[in-house]
């Protein structure tokens, strides 16, 4: 059997070919990161072995000192990274080396422009990982034996990074993985011990197991005669600190180390924005190190993608992406949680309904929110950067995190009529500070885009009275804001919903004038209502319009036209809810409805006014052709 399947040649998955090509070019200026990536993989393999060994007594065998060894062979021009971690089976090798598991990668790569392709940060977010070896090597050989497998059941993988790889069964005396890089001719600097030591120092001090290199024996003078048949057994020494970073005291860790550790755990090529490192002792015992990234990954919008923190129990790695400790709206957070309270044999299922999980989760959420509050307060520019990147994800928290809603709301930033740009930088606190003395509500509008929001007829009365309105244009806004009814004791009100309610801003005279007009114009209102019969729930004299002839208003608690359209597009059931049609009785176009005109002209005018109002509200008409026909008919008269 082993004879027939022994050597097989396979093609890389298309995405891998594309990525390899881009990576070799865009990361070339920082090629030394290949060593970080390979050491990082070796460290993960050791973590996995420690975990698997909890349930497999034989996995450690007589080799329980986990370590990574870096050796070179000047003559052969090779650099080898060897670990005695979990190792890979033939199937593992087949599945892991030659494919990229992350869904959406192919589409994303195709959509990238030339400039983006050269941007190492963008390439980095795929987790350049193992493939970075090809930046410096023209051939890579992987030899691996899985823990528990026999020496003859080991496997080798060889590729020149040009589209194909071959897999072969081999014998390997010890457990773990060896990555042998046949360095390109102009990359021989990576054979120099001092160069390697400096890279390891820079990137791998935080790795919890020793990264060893051959000892340099300063005492032995060069060329000293050796006995003929003397076998020199090389001595190795650790060249990194080899303690898990989060277990060290904060005061002993510098910024660079924190940043490097972030790259190790997040597989992000860029730097983090900020982090919080906390050790908690007492009733609960845990250490958390949580990071906020600077840049959103391309699949941030996929709410189902793996997320969460790396979970350790008493320093033993348990799992990646432990999503139980952070809610979906904090899916951008990366980090490590090391608990002393959870059992070592904990599984995702146990985590799901353990009381310890709930309290750890609450603690993690609090940490992240307070990290954000701190950033918003003392590093406004950094916070703005975070908001621009992740704001619309954070907004999901308004709907999803009842217990922290006020805190989450405090972190929101919006565009506003108070400023001239679409930048989302106004907080609810800023808004409240600027409220008019007689104003008791926070007003906002949700629209498809900034231009529609800014020039909405609904804002006219607020502009006239000098009242600020928050302008919201993210897809999640209507849903998210539906869950935020109050902030700091002030009610929030969508200006496009329900009766115009200006509270203390409204004068008695204004009210009376509307009541009077409603009485006087009751015939006209009835006639319009008959005309728009199945399209509106009500026709009213408006108190909110100044320059526009008409507008549509969603009934209180009802859905806006825009929201209904979005839900329909998403294939969801949308209960029928007709808008209220409000007319501005002072407007020339409305006044002329009372003039003597033929019935079909009246019908055209009313329909055009209604469609206009719908257009201003949602930028979309169900039957645009009918609208233009009517308009053209009126224009040619
Ligand atoms: N030294 C190793 N020992 C055991 N398995 C390894 C080793 N190196 C790589 N692998 C396996 O190959 C997979 C692919 O590695 P690769 O570095 O490409 O991606 P990754 O580690 O999943 O993420 P990233 O690309 O961000 O590093 C790993 O997930 C792991 O399963």
UniProtKB/TrEMBL annotation:
Query: Could you tell me which SMART domains the record lists for this protein?
Result: HATPase_c
The UniProt entry's coiled-coil ranges are 507-534
- UniProt keyword terms in alphabetical order: ATP-binding, Chaperone, Coiled coil, Cytoplasm, Nucleotide-binding, Stress response
Q: Report residue spans for region: C.
A: 566-637
Q: For the region A, what residue ranges are annotated?
A: 1-348
Q: What are the GO MF terms of this UniProt record?
A: ATP binding; ATP hydrolysis activity; ATP-dependent protein folding chaperone; unfolded protein binding
List GO terms (cellular component aspect). Answer: cytoplasm
Where the record annotates domain Histidine kinase/HSP90-like ATPase, the positions are: 30-187
Write down the Gene3D superfamilies for this protein, in alphabetical order. Answer: 3.30.230.80, 3.40.50.11260, Heat shock protein 90, C-terminal domain, Histidine kinase-like ATPase, C-terminal domain
Residues at which ATP binds? 37, 41, 83, 88, 96, 103-104, 125-130, 177, 348
Please give the chief subcellular localization of this protein.
cytoplasm
- PROSITE patterns per the UniProt record, alphabetical: HSP90
Q: Where in the cell is it found?
A: Cytoplasm
Which Pfam families would you find in this protein's record? Answer: HATPase_c_3, HSP90
Q: Which family does it belong to?
A: Belongs to the heat shock protein 90 family.
Subunit structure, as described in the record: Homodimer.
Q: What does this protein do?
A: Molecular chaperone. Has ATPase activity.
- This chain belongs to the protein called Chaperone protein HtpG
Species: Aliikangiella marina
